[in-house]
Amino acid sequence: MSLSLHTSLLLVFLLSLLLLRGTTSLPGSIGMTYTSSSSSPPPDHVASTLQSLKISAVRLPNPSPSVVRSFSYSNISLLLSLPNSLLPSLASNRSSADLFLYTHVIPFYPRSHISSISLGSDIFSSSSDLSSLLLPALRNLHSSLISLGIHSISLSTTFSFVNIMSTAFPPSSAEFNQPISQLIIKPLLDFLDETNSSFFVNLYPYSVYSLNHDIPIGFALFEEQEPFNFREDSVTGVKYRNLFDVMVDAVISAMAVAGHENIPVVVTETGWPSSSNGAGDPDAREGYAEIYIKGLIDHLKSGLGTPLRKEGVAQTYIYELFDGDEKQGNETGEQNWGILFPNMTAKYHIDFSEASGGPVVEIAIGFVLAVVGVLILH
Ligand SMILES: *[C@@H]1O[C@H](CO)[C@@H](O)[C@H](O)[C@H]1NC(C)=O
Ligand SMILES: *[C@@H]1O[C@H](CO)[C@@H](O)[C@H](O)[C@H]1NC(C)=O
Ligand SMILES: *[C@@H]1O[C@H](CO)[C@@H](O)[C@H](O)[C@H]1NC(C)=O
Ligand SMILES: *[C@@H]1O[C@H](CO)[C@@H](O)[C@H](O)[C@H]1NC(C)=O
Ligand SMILES: *[C@@H]1O[C@H](CO)[C@@H](O)[C@H](O)[C@H]1NC(C)=O
């Protein structure tokens, strides 16, 4: 035998690492929210810039047909986030759902990769009571899609963490607020389960931190190397190293209480403001925004998931591409959240290239394959 055990072990190990490269991409893709406005660059330029930044998913609030069209032939998957104002007509009958699809989806699909539609956003912040319209609207739109033979666009609605959760601590005991849990969220979860869709939630550690200044800011900013930046779940004893995971697990616990523990979670908005207009908040600053976004991306790319869900969130959309036109529903006041300047240069250097299993995962898988390989060789 000319090859020693060690040499063949090493060879197989290296070979398996090579084979694994590019194939271990774990769930958890990272996207951006892009709100087109009169002050942002033309949508065609935006689509090509996003492509060159290797951003693979984009969420479009209130998407106009021209913006959806600008993503034709790009490989970027689109989440169309429809405003609450469409709920009454979509809930009224199938023909308005058909009409909506014929004007907003059919002309661009499948050249524009529309992967999901959120019907309504944070309906509990609306001045009118939309709760009885949500499910009928989703069902009408779902039947229209199916009758058009479109099975690959999933439907959901977007909630805001602070408006649906009773508390985030301890995450294992979190529940949705009553009475909306029983009246609206439970039937929605049944619909999501039935149609293989996901739970969409806007989740801002910034908001929870702003309301609870006893939380260390490093815990909200993924500064996991700081010795005191963790919180223990007092019921399960699990240690949490960042507030994002606490909030995700609170949602997962609340879904389990409502009878659905396996529905994927999509974080439709998260971010940190880089400045605030007027009096403003001293924690809304560029340095923190950069630390938050980089920490978030590193965390998602690590593939470690959360203590309650090892695969983590299914997708995360960072809020947002350009400073706006203020946020819908002014939960966080008038602040700037953009990661690009209007001339499309980056405010911070952020690496969006494909989220993949971290080196730890790759090496562990490589090692297992190497051992199997050696057993076969000998
Ligand atoms: C889109 O993705 C496909 C396969 O995933 C690839 O072959 C193609 O080159 C991509 N197109 C662009 C414009 O990146
Ligand atoms: C459907 O609803 C729309 C708007 O609510 C209304 O204009 C239209 O007449 C309705 N169509 C049918 C067939 O009921
Ligand atoms: C949901 O997904 C499962 C497994 O992938 C599949 O068998 C089922 O047909 C899907 N259901 C719908 C309604 O798409
Ligand atoms: C948010 O909106 C409410 C109601 O429209 C308004 O009273 C409040 O002043 C706004 N807050 C900010 C910070 O703009
Ligand atoms: C883009 O805009 C930013 C902010 O206004 C400015 O600092 C930067 O120099 C500009 N870059 C180019 C290439 O014009």
Written overview of the protein:
Belongs to the glycosyl hydrolase 17 family. It comes from Camellia sinensis var. sinensis (China tea). Keywords: Glycosidase, Hydrolase, Membrane, Signal, Transmembrane, Transmembrane helix. With 378 residues, this protein is α/β, with parallel strands linked by helices. The protein folds into two domains: 46 residues, no CATH class; 332 residues, Alpha-Beta Barrel (TIM Barrel). Helix content is 39%, strand content 14%. The chain is built from 13 helices and twelve strands. The protein has an eight-stranded parallel beta barrel, surrounded by four helices. Strands 7-8 form a two-stranded antiparallel sheet. A two-stranded antiparallel sheet has the order 10-12. α1 crosses α13 and α5 packs across α6. The longest helix is centred in the C-terminal third of the chain and has 19 residues. The termini are close together. About 8% of the residues have low confidence. It binds 2-acetamido-2-deoxy-beta-D-glucopyranose (5 copies). One 2-acetamido-2-deoxy-beta-D-glucopyranose (NAG) binds next to loops.
